[in-house]
Amino acid sequence: MSISVSNLTKDYGKHTALNGISFEASAGKVLGFLGPNGAGKSTTMKILTCFIPQTSGKASVCGFDVVEAPLDVRRVIGYLPEHNPLYLEMYVKEALGFICDIHKIANKQERIKEVIELTGLDNEQFKKIGALSKGYRQRVGLAQAILPDPQVLILDEPTSGLDPNQVVGIRSLIRKLGKTKTVILSTHIMQEVEAVCDHVIIINKGEIVANSDLNDLRSKYPDKSLEKIFITLTNSNQDGISGREAGLN
C-alpha cells in the first residue's frame, strides 16, 4: 500500500483531534477523505505530509515512516493544502522553475511546459501570481504539487475558487492522475466525490465512521443521496444513527 495508517492519534492538550484511526490507500484509485469541519481531515493530511507529528500510532508513505524518514516522505508526495501558499511576487513560470530547482528536476523546461498545459495555465504563465484570480492561483498550487511527478498526491479542496468550466477540467485531470498514482482528495463538495472518487473515508470527531467503496456505500443507503449519507454518518441526531451503528467502518 502507498499509504498505511495504524491507530493514529493526535492530541492538542486535552483535545483529541484524531482518536486511533487506521486506513490504507493504494495507487489506481482516488480516495475521497471526507468529514465536517473540525473532524480531523487536515490534521491527518498534515501528519502524512510531515508538517506535524502524531501523538501515537504509525503512518507511512511508500514504505517511509513519517517520523523516521520525513525527507523521503516529502520526496514522494505532492501536496496542495487548503490555504494554498504561493510566492505572489513571482511570475507563474518563474515559480514553477523554482519548484523544479528545489526537486532537482532534470528535464526542467519540458516538465514545466507539460504541467502548464495539464493545468490550463498557458495564458497565465507570464503573469505575476499575485495578479491572478483565486481560481488560477489554485491551478498554480496544483501545478506545483504535480510538478515533480510524485507517487502520492494529497489534495485539500483542489477546486476551491474555480468556475464551472475550470472545475470540469481539474476533475478530469485528477481522475487521470488517479489511474497511476495514489490520490487523496479532501472536499466538501459531494458532486466532486461522485465525479472523481472510487473509495471514500468519512471521519467525524476524530474517528472513521465509514471506509468503503463508493458504490458499496451507496448500495447500503439506496434511498439517500451521498449528501444525505454524509449527514447521517456525521450527525448522531440525524435519523438516530451513527457511523459505528451503520457498520461502515
From TrEMBL:
GO molecular function, one term: ATP binding
The organism of origin for this protein: Daejeonella lutea
Sections of the chain in a coiled coil: none
Signal peptide location: none
Protein name, entry field: ABC-2 type transport system ATP-binding protein
Transmembrane spans: none
Alphabetical UniProt keywords: ATP-binding, Nucleotide-binding, Transport
Every ABC transporter domain range: 3-230
Pfam short name (any one): ABC_tran
Domain of life, source organism: Bacteria
Family, similarity comment: Belongs to the ABC transporter superfamily.
UniProt xrefs under InterPro entries: AAA+_ATPase, ABC_transporter-like_ATP-bd, P-loop_NTPase
